[in-house]
Amino acid sequence: MKEAKFSNRQLRARKDLLQAAARLTKSGGKPTMDEVAKEALISRATAYRYFKNIDALLLEAPLDEAVGTPELMFEGDDSTDPEKRVVAAEAAMHELAYRNEAQLRVMLANSIGRDAVAPGTPVRQNRRSDLIDAALATSKERFSPANYKMLRAALAIIFGTESMIVCQDVLGIDEKTARKVKSWAVRALVRAAL
Fold it and tell me: Taking the alpha carbons of 51, 56, 58, 62 in that order, is the dihedral positive or negative?
């Protein structure tokens, strides 16, 4: 199973743009792409490789900040129970997705409808993989490398916006039921991988 690989520079550039946009927005007004690029120490052309326009960037910036870091989520949690930790991580993503549904739907539409400006450029920020890795950090040695890789990929399907849309639009289930279904699936996947 081959996962898309982006350079640290590419991932950092996208993250820097999001953080710069958040800083400028907090100081008041709506920044331009030029202002955000300058604040992020990135060229305007590079900024447009990651975001088709300033509105797409400004839509995602507060969400990026709301996610926080996986390290903070598990700070002080020394549990080695992978089920418990993965369920907690998915619950956090679930809550974030439902709390920011409108924005996330627009972000998803932007990423799907985006022309490929630069092949190999990340279209979306991958927040879920780091969160999954943090959740499994205290028990990673319990999984074979192949099972860990497969588990990570399977969990990424359940975490985030897409699973919320499937639960609501395809299955027609409410948020509480969706949380139960996803918790069950996460536990089943961890047990299968072990």
Answer: negative
Token digits of residue 157: 């399907």
CA angle 109/3/123 to nearest 5° reads: 25
Instruction: Give the Cα separation of 103 and 60 in Å (integer).
Output: 8
Residue 182 to residue 87: CA distance in whole angstroms: 9
Between CA 107 and CA 25 the distance in angstroms is 18
User: Containing domain of residue 60, as a range?
Assistant: 1-67
**Which residue has tokens 């955000």?**
36
The confidence band for 110, taking pLDDT boundaries of 50, 70 and 90, is confident
Find the length of the chain.
194
* 63 & 117 share domain: no
pLDDT of 68 higher than 70: no
